[in-house]
Amino acid sequence: SIARPPPPPMPENPLSNARHAVLQRLENAARAAGRTAPSLLAVSKTQNAAAIATLFAAGQHAFGENYVQEAQAKARELAHLDIEWHLIGHLQSNKADIAASLFDWVQTVDRIKLVAALAKHRPGRACAAQCADPGQRGRRSQQVRLSPGGHRHAGQCDRHRTAAEAARADGHSH
């Protein structure tokens, strides 16, 4: 068993309190399973910029948005913060240009056409696709990384097809 430092003291803010409680539950479950605790992606859809800034100040730096336009407005307002933005909702091809410049991660790619569209709008910047079988109920996952980093995301794909198609579509690593 790995000795871990105690969690930080409970913050005063209700959003910070909720975040702290979730992190504590994740840590407890991971410890019980003999695993490392996963990172937390805060779903910020329907939340205003002030709430996001409060959680950012409490140490939450990764936020998930469902809608490109909603995220665009929040990202503009919070540009002074180093937020890692994730698109967790459906992406329409006609919004790939905005998504490519706005989001660090797109978790919901359901067509290889989107990989190509995202790559097209990120010349000279990282854009990669990976597939793996997570071994959970036969589901397959796809990861599309729009910026360098060690985080993982999953959406549906055919792992035997997508890596090769992504390589052809974006001309980058896979």
Q: Would you summarize the structure shown here?
A:
With 174 residues, the chain is α/β, with parallel strands linked by helices.
Structure description:
With 174 residues, the chain is an alpha/beta fold. It has 6 helices and 6 strands; from the N terminus they run αβαβαβαβαββα. Strands 1-2-3-4-6-5 form a 6-stranded mixed sheet. Strand 1, helix 2 (49-57) and strand 2 form a beta-alpha-beta unit. The radius of gyration is 17 Å and the shape is globular. The termini are far apart. The model is unreliable at 129-143 and 145-164 (pLDDT under 50).
Features:
six-stranded mixed β-sheet; 174 residues; alpha/beta; 6 helices; single chain; globular
What is this structure's SSE topology?
Blueprint: H1 14-33, E1 42-43, H2 49-57, E2 62-65, H3 68-77, E3 84-87, H4 96-102, E4 105-106, H5 112-120, E5 128-132, E6 141-145, H6 159-170
Parallel strand pairs: 1-2, 2-3, 3-4
Antiparallel strand pairs: 4-6, 5-6
Helix pairs in contact: 4-5, 5-6
Number of strands: 6
Structural class based on helices, strands and sheet pairing: alpha/beta
Task: Report the average pLDDT across residues.
Answer: 75
The strand line-up of the biggest sheet is: 1-2-3-4-6-5
- Measured by DSSP, the beta-strand proportion falls in 5-15%
State the helix count: 6
Order of helices and strands: HEHEHEHEHEEH
Provide the helix percentage: 25-40%
- Radius of gyration, rounded? 17 Å
What oligomeric state do these chains adopt?
Answer: single chain
Q: Give a short account of the largest sheet.
A: 6 strands, mixed
Distance between the termini: 35 Å
Low-confidence stretches: 129-143, 145-164
Shape descriptor: globular
